[in-house]
Amino acid sequence: MAIKDTPEEWTVTATATPFTGNKTSVRTDEVVMPDGGTVKRDYQVHPGSVAVLALDDEGRVLVLRQYRHPVRQRLWEIPAGLLDIPGENPLHAAQRELYEEAHVKAEDWRVLTDVYTTPGGCDEAVRIFLARDLSAAEGERFEVSEEEADMELARVPQDELVRGVLAGELHNNCLVVGVLALTAAQAGEGLDALRPADAPWPARPFEA
C-alpha cells in the first residue's frame, strides 16, 4: 500500500458559520460517521498560506522574530503570509512575502513541502518554498505595521536551527517543518530534485 494522503469527503447534512472574522471564519458541520450517526465538527476556515525558507550561499536561513499574541511568545519564524487573493499563484505570494518582510529576492525557487497546519481544527494549507540565490531587493523597503513593525531579522546557520528545533527551543510550524525538510532533502536526492515552484497544489488550486 502506498503511504499517501488521499482526497475523501464524508456527507455533511447541515452547516453553519457562527463566526466570520477579517480573514478567517468558523464553520460547524454536521458530519455522517461510518456507523451512520452524525456528529458536529467545528473548524476554522482559512484562505491558505505560503512560507519561504530562504537559504543563502553560506548555509544560513533567513529568519524573523515576531510577537504572536495567541501563544504569548516572540517566535523565530521564516517569512510567511496569507493567500489573500483567491486563486493567486502561491509562488507570486511567496515572492511578495520575502520582499515585504525581508527586502530580499531570490533567483531559484522550488517547493520544499506542503502541509496542513492543524487538520483536526483548521483547513489551513501551507506551501513552503525553498528560495536560493538571494540578493537585496531593489527600491524602497515595504512599510510594515502592527506586530511586524517590531520584527527582528537574522541569518542563522541551518545546523543551529536544527539544534534549536530538537531542543524544543523553536516552535513555529513553518520553521520547524521547513528546516527539517531541508535537512532531509539534502541527505536524500538533493535540493535540485525538489518539485518545481509551479508544481500543482490540490489543496489550493491556482492559475499559472
From TrEMBL:
Domain annotation Nudix hydrolase: ranges: 44-183
Matching SUPFAM superfamilies: Nudix
Keyword Hydrolase: yes
Record-linked InterPro entries: NUDIX_hydrolase-like_dom_sf, NUDIX_hydrolase_dom
Keyword Hydrolase: yes
Molecular functions per Gene Ontology: hydrolase activity
GO aspect biological process, one term: nucleoside phosphate metabolic process
Organism superkingdom: Bacteria
Cellular component, GO, one term: cytosol
Keywords of this entry: Hydrolase
This protein's name: ADP-ribose pyrophosphatase
Organism: Streptomyces chattanoogensis
